[in-house]
Design brief:
homodimer; alpha/beta; Rossmann fold; 3 domains; six-stranded parallel beta sheet; four-stranded parallel beta sheet; DNA-binding
Chain lengths: 337, 337
DNA sequence: CCTCGAATTGTGATCCCTCACATAACTCAC
DNA sequence: GTGAGTTATGTGAGGGATCACAATTCGAGG
């Protein structure tokens, strides 16, 4: 609700004050070239005098374009690519709006959210949820013609998407442990409903088997710090021996390091630990964490750029852009003694 | 740009199909009571059939209300209250939009951002920046009649605001160190342009002096992990002795713990460390960090609730809601030996 | 059977802009 | 100075909803 006295001025008010038609004012605002210099100056001065700014709602209604990109994601707290997305969007002339789903929302929740969002006349959608409920065709119809890009979706799906090759990342991590001589490798996996967690887990198992090894004990956490702690305690209590521990993300790895420390297990002397993500803090863990880095800046940049070019060219062919993680070796891994 | 074939249906399309006037359809949508049951059903069925959803831009234009709250903040990455704000806003029937300023934006940047935002017909503004450039009167005029609440602003300002009593939080931390017997207390402060950093620093100095102590060495960081690390190295290299270290936020404290560990300084045996914020990871640092907790859920809840009531009642008196932090004692502090 | 009032429905104007087009004013050549 | 060709400006018609009001229908009481 506006202060009643702060009645906004409109195109017509400006036009009247400047002694021109509203259309001329519109031209000045939209930088149309065909306006005489004197007229433009007169209009600009009137705009300043009335403190006029165009009403976006009306503009959106008239043009059908909002210059708004909507990001739909499931947990804002841990969204490191967010600032880069906002920055990229702005750079391309768009505003990025963010809306959040509860973690592991049901299909109906996603449907409802999309219903709500597409009513707002947004120009494009970035969808960043780890639970791939819908096929490309379903998604297309849910988005009702609004172009969309899936961010961090499953590898290999036929949908406009930008993803990391999780498999490659896991292979780097496991290969590193194998190279160091480890043969008994335990795992703390992510939440089983999380697409990345599934893929990371499968890759670990597949790869160990491919090397003729029996996968070590494995427990599923939920990607949060406390679950990393609790899972590690369970692993230790199970009595199954392991000399290396692969943790599906850095956050849980922090919990794992804590648990190992409390139990007197030295890292990396007794157990090597590898994380995943390379969150900013990982380099300062005790010991600094060896982990798999995903360049979220690039993820953000690619996602927004792809979406914007789809907006400009709706018939753009569907593609999946795949990015590759890299291994960052720090102090939490060492050769098997 | 929409797919041309996915032309959205409008009120009129629905009206035609249902054999009623557009106004009746509008009534059905807005739950107006005076609609005959049979008519309502006919309309609802037409809505379903056409997959109709009202155009929000048009609605905003007609009503002047968007049911959108805008959050203006300076660094999304570290915004723990964000999810709570989004949740609270939704609970009250609003959508929360987020936009970001570069860290320590200049006054003109804030002005430009507000110019842009207020053009979008938002119902209210949450302003969460640590640099208080404008007076209440200036702010009011910048917001052009849109109600606003300052979040985490300076203590004692006459503006609608919800803040933590930083002073109280610092006093808790320092008192804790004093109680443990520490007399040589070093400090890593936050960025000097950050309002919270200033207040925390001043409070530390004031309080130590009040106890007849000389404030120990102090270095200003920037609230990021690496600066906590670098500052600690500098403190150690300076040769000035200290038995306790107050760090202005947990993130820097993580860097500090790392630096102390590398230099062979034991925490808490040789040096006690206190942080500020109680970020989720702090309990899992090595050692677990003693820190000052601010309940960000409450901050978020109060901010949104206050803003929404201002929207409902524009003549609501200006108030500052002050929240109090609490001390969380963990393993990084111990009695002076 | 008519009248009155409530319940239901419909009509016009409006919100503030942009589009496509029509008109007016200006330049310049012949 | 008349015509064409720019360049500047103005007009009408939407865009898709809401609001205030007018018009209709309905049921009940006299």
């Amino acid at each position: 609700m506006q202060d009643p006295q702060v009645k906004r001025s409109t195109l017509r008010d400006v036009a009247e004050l400047a002694g021109v038609s509203y259309q001329t004012v519109s031209r000045v605002i939209n930088q149309h070239p065909n306006v005489a210099r004197r007229t433009r100056e007169r209009v600009l001065s009137a705009i300043r005098q009335l403190d006029y700014r165009p009403n976006q709602a009306a503009k959106v209604l008239a043009t059908g374009r909002s210059y708004i990109l909507q990001l739909l994601m499931y947990d804002i707290r841990y969204s490191d690519p967010l600032p880069a997305m906002i920055y990229q969007a702005r750079k391309q002339g768009y505003t990025l709006l963010i809306s959040e789903l509860s973690p592991f929302a049901a299909p109906e929740d996603i449907r409802a959210a999309l219903d709500d969002l597409t009513a707002r006349m947004i120009d494009g959608l970035l969808i960043y949820t780890p639970t791939p409920f819908f096929s490309y065709t379903e998604m297309r119809s849910l988005c009702r013609g609004v172009p969309f890009v899936l961010v961090g979706a499953a590898l290999g799906i036929k949908s406009p998407s930008v993803v990391f090759d999780q498999r490659h990342g896991c292979e780097l991590a496991i290969q590193h442990l194998l190279d160091l001589g480890h043969r008994q490798i335990a795992e703390i996996a992510g939440h089983p409903r999380h697409i990345d967690a599934q893929l990371r887990h499968e890759t670990v198992v597949t790869m160990l088997k491919a090397h003729g090894l029996t996968p070590g004990p494995s427990i599923a956490g939920d990607f949060e710090v406390p679950s990393g702690y609790a899972s590690t305690i369970k692993l230790l209590d199970s009595g199954e021996p392991f000399t290396a521990l692969f943790v599906a993300n850095d956050r849980m790895a922090l919990g794992a390091l804590r648990a190992l420390h409390e139990r007197g297990v030295r890292v990396p002397e007794d157990v090597s630990v590898v994380g995943f993500d390379d969150m900013g803090e990982a380099a300062y863990f005790n010991p600094p964490l060896t982990t798999v880095r995903q360049d979220l800046q690039v993820l953000a940049q690619q996602s927004v750029e792809y979406l914007v070019s789809m907006i400009g060219n709706p018939s753009m062919p569907v593609q999946q852009r795949v990015l590759y993680p890299e291994l960052i070796v720090r102090g939490s891994t060492a050769p098997l003694k």
